[in-house]
Every structure is written in C-alpha cells, then in structure tokens.
Write a structure and sequence with these properties.
single chain; about 200 residues; mainly beta; Jelly Rolls; 7-stranded antiparallel sheet; 4-stranded antiparallel sheet; 2 helices; globular; binds succinic acid; binds fe (ii) ion
C-alpha cells in the first residue's frame, strides 16, 4: 500500500485487498437491492450519467430544485444502514471522527463520468469526506478551491481510498472517464464509488 498526497487529497493506493473488495461489493448489492439505483436529474433537468443510491440517515439527491440530502429513497423507503465494512474504513482512516451519516453510492457504467464539482451540501466542512473505489479504474481529477485552479489527475483503482480533508475538503474534483472492463470485480463491468460524509 502506498499513500500519495496530490493537491491536499490523500490517496491510499491499494488500501482494500481483493477479499475486502468482494465483501464490500456484496454489501453494496444488498444496499442497492433495498434502495435501487436511480439517475438523479441535474438542476438543469438532465439525467446524470452516474446512477446513484445511498445508505445511512441521509441520501444525496438532485432534481430541478437543486442538490440536497433527503431522508428517504425516492420510492419512500428508508435508506438502508451503512454497511459495517464501509464504516470500518472511516474508523481506520479518520479515527475519532463522528461516524458518517451518508454513504453515497455512485455507479459508473461504460460512458459515465462526473464533472468537476465540490462536495458542498453538508453543514460542517470540518468533517472529512472518505471515498472508496471499487471495480474499473477511473481518472480522478483534483483541483483547488476555485473551478479555474489547475488540476492534477491520478488513476483510481479498485481498493483505493481517498480522504478529502483540510484544504482538499472543498476542492474541485471529478471523474473524467473510466477504463471500462479494466477490473473483473464487477461481473458486468463498471465502477462503484462510495462517498462517506457527515451531513448535519
Ligand atoms: C464524487 O466526487 O462524488 C465521486 C468521486 C469518484 O467517483 O471517485
Ligand atoms: Fe464529490
């Protein structure tokens, strides 16, 4: 395992081994069984390319009214609880920090990407964000506090975990593209990203 720091983002390469990844995928399949993946609409009314669901007290949501957290899946069902192996990563990487109340599950199919954005819908930015990558590799772009700041990219692979804290907590970031089929973790291909946040 190696740890890189890029623009204040801490990247734990190869943090979760193959068995841990399998266990996490199994747990996330159960989450998506109870709270099915959906394509949120952007505030401009277009469906996002990344499919999403959540676990925890809150789920991240977007539609024409904007970005926000909601306390139920759009179906009305409560969000499932955050799987223990996922919480274990939070405990290990940001020890002593209040447990997250949202695990956003992002699923990237072949052509999905995520434009540069900041995670800024939470109440208190002193809490870190922990982000886990599973499945196909993806190019992760990291900038600074303003959209125009220069960016650097790294390839995130299955089992890598990123911590966004301090200056990086409000830095712009996004996924340019995934290398579809580069991992065999997900039988149908694609990439899962789990983002853990303290919301309120
Ligand atoms: C995100 O910023 O919400 C997702 C990042 C990723 O997919 O690695
Ligand atoms: Fe983000």
């Amino acid at each position: 395992m190696t740890v890189l720091t890029v623009n204040g983002f801490t990247i734990h390469k190869g943090r979760i081994g193959p068995e841990g990844q399998e266990a996490m995928v199994k747990a996330i399949r159960a989450v998506a069984g109870a709270a099915p993946l959906f394509s949120p609409l952007t505030p401009w009314g277009r469906p996002m390319r990344v499919k999403m669901t959540s676990a925890g007290r809150y789920g991240w949501y977007s539609d024409r009214r904007g970005y926000r957290y909601i306390d139920r899946h759009p179906s009305g069902a409560p969000w499932p609880s955050i799987p223990e192996p996922v919480l274990a990563e939070w405990r290990a990487l940001v020890p002593g920090t209040r447990l997250p109340d949202c695990c956003l599950v992002n699923f990237y199919g072949r052509d999905a990407r995520m434009g540069l954005h900041r995670d800024a819908d939470e109440r208190d930015f002193s809490f870190p964000v922990v982000s886990i990558s599973l499945g196909d590799a993806a190019t992760f772009r990291m900038g600074g506090p303003s959209r125009a700041d220069p960016t650097r990219s790294v390839m995130l692979e299955s089992g890598d975990v990123v911590v966004m804290a301090g200056a990086a907590r409000l830095a712009y970031h996004g996924i340019d593209r995934i290398r579809f089929g580069s991992s065999r973790l997900l039988t149908e291909g694609g990439r899962i990203n789990l983002t853990l946040r303290v919301v309120d």
